[in-house]
Design brief:
This protein is α/β, with parallel strands linked by helices. The chain contains seven helices and seven strands, in the order βαβαβαβαβαβαβα. Helix 2 links the parallel strand 2 and strand 3. The longest helix is centred in the last third of the chain and has 21 residues.
Length: 247
């Protein structure tokens, strides 16, 4: 069971990077609020506005007034998803930190089950697995290929490394090293730091508003390049154990 948070401690931080998601942000805050309030623990949601050119800023200004738990980071220029993810994760104050996409394809209702695994200390990170993914067939095929290649190169068994829905114990975050594209490899990067990672099936919904930011070509080839970078990092990671003499 989830124990009570210490006084003034944020129990859960939900981080969502957003670029031109004005049509989805109001419902996102509403759904996160409904789920997080049900935990009966202090919480916050951090939305990172990554250089949006639509009505995202005005929507978030309205949401900040309505939701005291909402914090907004505004990138000075568009910096990309990895930078927006890192910025949000670094300022998150929660004992547990969740990240999710702002396009409403992730379902905040999956968060309590993921949090239970962390609270029972069954793992240090829970990665979502979009088992019944609601995307066009060409994206489904390209993602399966990308996951297979990624696992082959990095000697992993992660079914859905690029799923936007993940929950961490906060101690997983300080050691992580972020580079462009590394948000797709977070389960592997967390394992490289000695933490335990599990995957569980999560809901996935069709995009109902806004436009997808990635196509097949700009996803697959960049992910392949980044997979080689992660493989190099794995091969150069320093690992050791020691004991100290007692007097």
């Amino acid at each position: 069971m989830m124990g009570p948070a210490k006084q003034n401690e944020i129990y859960l931080s939900v981080v969502a990077p957003a670029h031109n998601e004005a049509e989805n942000l109001g419902r996102l805050v509403e759904e996160v609020t409904a789920v997080a309030s049900g935990l009966k623990q202090p919480w916050e949601v951090v939305i990172v506005n990554d250089g949006s050119t639509d009505e995202t800023e005005s929507v978030l200004r309205a949401q900040v007034k309505a939701c005291p738990q909402l914090r907004v980071l505004s990138m000075k220029q568009r910096s990309g998803q990895t930078a927006a993810v890192e910025a949000g994760l670094r300022v998150a104050r929660g004992r547990f930190v969740a990240m999710m996409d702002a396009d409403l394809q992730n379902d905040p209702a999956d968060l309590p089950a993921m949090l239970e695994l962390l609270a029972r200390d069954e793992c240090d990170m829970v990665n979502g697995w979009r088992r019944d993914r609601q995307d066009p067939w060409i994206r489904l095929v390209s993602t399966r290929i990308a996951n297979a290649v990624r696992n082959k190169l990095t000697h992993e068994t992660i079914r859905d490394s690029a799923c936007g829905l993940k929950v961490f114990k906060r101690e997983c975050l300080p050691p992580l090293k972020f580079f462009n594209g590394m948000h797709r490899f977070l389960p592997t990067l967390v394992r490289m730091e000695g933490f335990r990672v599990v995957e569980i099936p999560v809901h996935h919904r069709p995009r109902s508003a806004g436009k997808a930011k990635y196509g097949v070509l700009n996803r697959v080839f960049k992910a392949l390049r980044d997979a080689f970078a992660v493989r190099w990092m794995q091969s150069r990671t320093v690992r050791y154990e020691f004991t100290e003499w007692e007097r």
